[in-house]
């Protein structure tokens, strides 16, 4: 399933995307089945029984119950994640372009919920940021609570996947040894459009991902090239922290960031940034200057 959160007059709703006659339609799962929660984290907390109920509901819906995707406002699939855990330098070519070598352990940092925006929402560049940059990434969404998760079972704890842009203010990121302020300006974590459930992705370590601005392909990577696999990352961090349904893990960006280009390619107002992941979807956001 391709699960979405979308806005309606009554507030946020849980939906699912489905192709009908070549067009992407949104099905309002809350309207079709009132037992399904409207909040994505509440839904994920319900585990397999709610997933099965959503699947049955979607399968039973008639084409006439779909809403054209262009006529609704999609939000981030998880508008307020409990955690947004990011991995630095998880592709060797990106570590090298950042003048680093392969890290011996995953480099872990965080973004906060203030950064989250949905597909089509603008990335707003603060006046104080001079070096805004893109980082297209595969995001993993946790579906089951866990601590001390063995690597061999780690993927059982995944609800699904989505594209994510770890937008970064390089001047603020590199001002001190701690990256937090460079990673946490408002709007600097676009994600979506849909949370694609794990059953639709046979091998998460076998996916192409690209970041494109206009017609320029700036990043092209493959998840087989991750230094630390999705399963390894989950196992490693769960040794110290409980992972909860709705937690988001951004698994690192491949080579081609703006900072490593000659001359650097910073985000500019008017840019439309696309993060595309094979089989998962395309996340698109326009860049605006803060007024
Ligand atoms: Zn990143």
Write the topology of this structure.
Elements: E1 2-8, E2 11-20, E3 23-28, H1 29-32, H2 40-45, H3 47-60, E4 67-68, E5 73-75, E6 84-88, H4 92-97, E7 107-111, E8 116-117, E9 123-125, E10 132-133, E11 136-142, E12 158-165, E13 168-169, H5 170-173, H6 180-183, E14 189-190, E15 195-197, E16 208-213, E17 216-222, H7 230-237, E18 248-250, E19 272-277, E20 281-289
Parallel strand pairs: 6-18, 8-14, 9-20
Antiparallel strand pairs: 1-2, 1-5, 1-15, 2-3, 3-4, 6-7, 10-13, 11-12, 11-18, 12-15, 16-17, 16-19, 19-20
The structure holds zinc ion.
Structural class: alpha+beta
The helix fraction, in percent, is 10-25%
| Rg result | 18 Å
* Major sheet characteristics: 11 strands, mixed
* CATH structural fold name of the largest domain: Fumarylacetoacetate hydrolase, domain 2
Number of individual domains: 2
The tally of strands reads 20
The helix-strand sequence is EEEHHHEEEHEEEEEEEHHEEEEHEEE
Q: Total helix count?
A: 7
Unreliable stretches, pLDDT < 50, 5 or more residues? none
Bound molecules: zinc ion
Could you characterize what this model shows?
The protein has 291 residues and is of the alpha+beta class. It has two domains: 2-75, no CATH class; 84-289, Alpha-Beta Complex (Fumarylacetoacetate hydrolase, domain 2), CATH 3.90.850.10. The protein is built from seven helices and 20 strands. The protein has helices at 29-32, 40-45, 47-60, 92-97, 170-173, 180-183, 230-237, and strands at residues 2-8, 11-20, 23-28, 67-68, 73-75, 84-88, 107-111, 116-117, 123-125, 132-133, 136-142, 158-165, 168-169, 189-190, 195-197, 208-213, 216-222, 248-250, 272-277, 281-289. The strands form four sheets. Strands 1, 2, 3, 4, 5, 6, 7, 11, 12, 15 and 18 form an eleven-stranded mixed sheet that branches. It has a five-stranded mixed sheet with strand order 9-20-19-16-17, with no helix packed on it. The model has no long low-confidence stretch (mean pLDDT 97). The structure holds zinc ion. Residues 86, 135, 137, 166, 250, 252-253 line the site of zinc ion (ZN).
């Amino acid at each position: 399933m391709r699960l979405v959160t979308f806005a309606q007059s009554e507030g946020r709703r849980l939906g699912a995307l489905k192709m009908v006659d070549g067009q992407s339609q949104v099905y309002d799962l809350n309207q079709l089945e009132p037992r399904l929660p409207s909040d994505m984290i509440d839904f994920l907390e319900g585990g397999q029984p709610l997933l099965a109920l959503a699947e049955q509901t979607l399968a039973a819906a008639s084409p006439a119950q779909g809403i054209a995707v262009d006529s609704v406002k999609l939000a981030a699939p998880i508008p307020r994640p409990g955690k947004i855990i990011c991995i630095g330098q998880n592709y060797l070519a990106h570590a090298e372009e950042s003048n680093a070598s392969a890290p011996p352990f995953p480099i872990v940092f965080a973004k906060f919920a203030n950064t989250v925006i949905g597909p089509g929402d603008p990335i707003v560049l603060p006046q104080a940021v001079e070096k805004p940059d893109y980082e297209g990434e595969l995001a993993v969404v946790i579906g089951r609570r866990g601590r001390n998760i063995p690597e061999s079972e780690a993927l059982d704890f995944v609800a699904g996947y989505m594209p994510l842009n770890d937008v970064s203010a390089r001047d603020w990121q590199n001002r001190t040894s701690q990256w937090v302020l460079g990673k946490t300006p408002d709007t600097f974590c676009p994600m979506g459009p849909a949370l694609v459930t794990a059953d639709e992705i046979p091998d998460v370590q076998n996916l192409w991902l690209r970041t494109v601005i206009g017609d320029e392909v700036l990043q092209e990577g493959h998840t087989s090239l991750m230094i630390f696999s999705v399963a390894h990352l989950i196992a490693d961090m769960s040794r110290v922290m409980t992972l909860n349904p709705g937690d988001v893990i951004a698994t690192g960006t491949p080579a081609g960031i703006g900072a490593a280009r000659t001359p650097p390619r910073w985000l500019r107002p008017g840019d439309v940034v696309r993060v595309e992941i094979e089989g998962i979807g395309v996340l698109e956001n326009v860049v605006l200057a803060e007024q």
